[in-house]
Design a protein that fits this description.
Length: about 500
């Protein structure tokens, strides 16, 4: 009766053991004996230490009998301990497991452990003894590594903001971890003078670049630079001030991927907008012009390029009337005082840069205050009234209108020459001399002495020789009168007369 029952129980135990091995987290070998332990395990990663933490569960197969663990063998060979609330952990060995119950023990193994096995020998009273084992695969989850306490500068990621026109930027270290040790990462904001509002060379650093670093617990920095009030380029670059290029010249080095926001390293290690700007509304030069009129009608134009923003050569164009034009290039910090616009082209002068008239760049010739005035002398006798206009050297041709009675004569007097007109003597007491271009008008009195009885007679008591003495005296008197009139009409300018 007993033998058939025993033979049936053995295959059932084998089948149960096979099912546990297929479905459990740990592979458990279960003996043929009814008295046994079932060993399974679960694993976790301790990121503080980088160790695998295995929790072994050892279950007692007997419902009414206590199992006492007598021997424990672990692979890897590290302590296997039962965590007792409120007390120090105890080794799994010699721990008693009540019937139909289990005990949990913790084992710590290195983070790169691929598998672990726990072998347990247990006793039920004096006669019953059984050894069982359980295994667990640790390789499926990969290695356990400790959570980093800092980030290496070579692997750190950043984010940034950038406002080129205002010359401001921020850079922030991503995440909560600082850079490791004494590592520092510098970033620099720099602005330039530029020849165009688009990228062009040469460029020269404006003011002082602003540079700062992240590290030593510093997670965010702010950068600020001055931006010139002209064409400019502003760059946010990876690195310190030793990375700044000054000047930026054609075929010279460039920042390339060092600019934050680039597509390649290191600039692509910071997320944010493109860290560069080109713009500005006017040239980084200070072109200026002054004008000086000469008595001969020409104008000397002085060109300068020496203002605080003058970083580039300026090409001036000086235009006069009648198609006259001259191009002059002035280097930064220099001036040119040799451009003379001829008199015939100096009616209206314009100074242009890049096709536009510069500020205060328009002028027309004006007669200088110190230019000598033409002079008028007389040669009068009883028969004729002669008037001579003389124009000094170094001046402009002068138009002179002579009117006596109902007759008018007009002459243009070249510089350094004279023109004379002679009228027949008449009853009119004065001639009118007008210099219309100079705004002068004067009366010349005809009053020769000794011309009684029809204007040609001899005044008693006056000798007459050759050119009558009375005529010479009259000429002298007329010259004095003319001098008085010229003095008034010439706006107090000094005029020289000769008889």
């Amino acid at each position: 009766m007993i033998r058939p029952k025993l033979s049936l129980r053995r295959p059932l135990a084998v089948l149960a053991a096979a099912l546990i091995g297929l479905t459990g987290a740990a592979a458990v070998a279960t003996p043929a004996s009814a008295h046994h332990t079932t060993i399974t395990g679960t694993v976790a990663c301790d990121q503080l230490s980088g160790e695998r933490v295995i929790t072994w569960k050892v279950a007692n197969s007997e419902k009414w009998k206590t199992a006492t663990i007598k021997k424990v063998t672990a692979e890897p060979s590290t302590p296997v301990q039962v965590l007792v609330p409120g007390n120090e952990p105890v080794d799994l060995e010699d721990v008693a497991i009540p019937g139909d119950s289990f005990v949990e023990a913790v084992q710590r193994v290195p983070g790169d452990t691929a598998s672990a096995k726990l072998t347990v020998e247990a006793r039920w009273g004096i006669l019953r003894k059984q050894t069982n084992e359980g295994t667990i695969n640790l390789a499926a989850d990969g290695a356990c590594t400790p959570a980093p306490k800092c980030v290496d500068a070579s692997e750190a990621k950043y984010s940034h903001t950038f406002d080129g026109p205002k010359g401001t930027a921020t850079v922030k270290l991503d995440g909560d971890l600082p850079l490791c040790g004494d590592e520092k990462q510098y970033f620099t904001l720099v602005s330039y003078f530029a020849p165009r509002p688009q990228f062009a060379t040469p460029q020269y650093v404006y003011g002082e670049p602003d540079s700062d670093f992240l590290g030593a617990g510093q997670h965010e920095i702010e950068l600020n630079v001055g931006v010139p009030d002209c064409h400019t380029q502003v760059d946010l670059i990876w690195g310190g001030v030793d990375e700044v290029i000054d000047p930026l010249v054609e075929d010279g080095p460039r920042y390339g991927s060092k600019k934050l926001g680039e597509n390649a390293a290191p600039g692509n290690r910071s997320s944010g907008p493109k860290g560069w700007y080109n713009g500005g509304s006017k040239n980084c030069t200070t072109p200026a012009s002054t004008f000086a009129s000469a008595c001969d009608g020409s104008v000397t134009v002085s060109l300068s390029n020496d203002g605080s923003l003058s970083k580039y050569a300026v090409e001036f164009e000086v235009r006069g009337e009648n198609g006259w034009s001259k191009t002059v290039t002035v280097e930064p910090g220099k001036a040119d005082n040799e451009t003379v616009v001829p008199a015939e082209n100096a009616g209206k002068i314009e100074v242009l840069v890049d096709g536009e008239v510069i500020e205060n760049g328009t002028y027309s010739w004006e007669r200088p205050e110190d230019c000598p005035l033409p002079t008028v002398t007389t040669d009068a006798d009883c028969e004729t009234f002669g008037l001579t206009a003389s124009n000094p050297e170094g001046g402009m041709p002068v138009k002179v209108e002579f009117t006596y009675g109902d007759k008018t004569e007009t002459r243009t007097v070249a510089p350094g020459s004279s023109e004379k007109v002679t009228f027949p003597a008449g009853d009119e007491e004065a001639a009118l001399v007008v210099l219309p271009e100079l705004g002068l008008e004067l009366e010349v009195v005809y009053a020769p002495e000794g011309c009684g009885g029809g204007g040609g007679g001899e005044e008693p008591g006056l000798p007459v020789t050759g050119a009558a003495a009375g005529g010479i005296a009259a000429g002298a008197i007329a010259l004095l009168a003319l001098g008085a009139v010229l003095f008034v009409m010439a706006r107090r300018r000094r005029i020289h007369f000769t008889a």
